[in-house]
Structure formats: C-alpha cells, structure tokens
Protein: Xylanase inhibitor C-terminal domain-containing protein
Amino acid sequence: FSGLLIKIPLISTLAFRSDDYFINLKSIKVDGKVVSFDTSLLSIDSGAVGGAKISTFTPYAVLHSAIYNALAKDFAKRAFDKKMIGLAPLAPFGARFNTKNVATTKNAGPAVPTMDLELRGIGNSSSNTYWRICGANSMARIKRNVMCLGFLDGGPNPVT
Structure:
C-alpha cells in the first residue's frame, strides 16, 4: 500500500563512514494531527548525531525518547478513539494493543491510526512530501491477538 510514496530524498552520511541513510523529516502526524515534540531533535549535527535514519538492519524505527513518547501517546489516543483496546507495555514495545476490536482493511491490514512523515522539500523546493505509513506497515504483530506500534524508544541519546 506504499504506492502513495512518490519520492523520498535520502541524505547519505558517507562523510561519517556510515552505510545508513537519513531522511529530512519535518514533522510526524497521526490521523492528520501534528505530533508535538522538539523538532530540533530531527536535525543531524556535525558529529552525525540526531536525525531520522532509515536502516535495513533494524526492523523497527528507533526514536529519541521525547519523539517516541509523544508519538506513542498521540497514537494511543487515536487508537482509543477507534475503540482499540490498550494493553500493558511489553519490552521492547511500549504501545501494545489487543486486536479484538481492530477491523482489517482490504489493502493495508489492520485499521489503525495513519501516520504521515512530513519531509522537507528538496533543494529550493518549498513543497513538502508526505510518506504515509498505515495498517500493517506501522504495527508489529507479536502474538495472535496482540500487536504493537512498530516504533521503539531509543532513549535520550539514540545512536545514529
């Protein structure tokens, strides 16, 4: 269902001898509402710390604690609005849900809150691009009737 993705500009960190790529993330939305957090945490400093990394080695997105906590809180609120049943956290996941009341969509899997990653425009472009993450792409099924938000708390100093 990721056909909604048109183009994602990647930022290479070859200067820092890394095989990872970063995206120029501006904001995160859950069901169309901006998640409130310190957006300066999305910037990459001269020591290659910070930013939003894309990894082919890590199966889940690892976020700075401040970003993760805000995202998990907003996602859970929207999930409860959809009558999803929350469960106690179970490491490494924080936002955990019972699938009992979760409908299944034809194309995207579970009908959970939709997330949009807003990326800054490329070069001189002032227009932003959105990367929509919905359904099965945002969740991790850990048991038959249990799924979790597929993002992890990387602590206050996540390694980039």
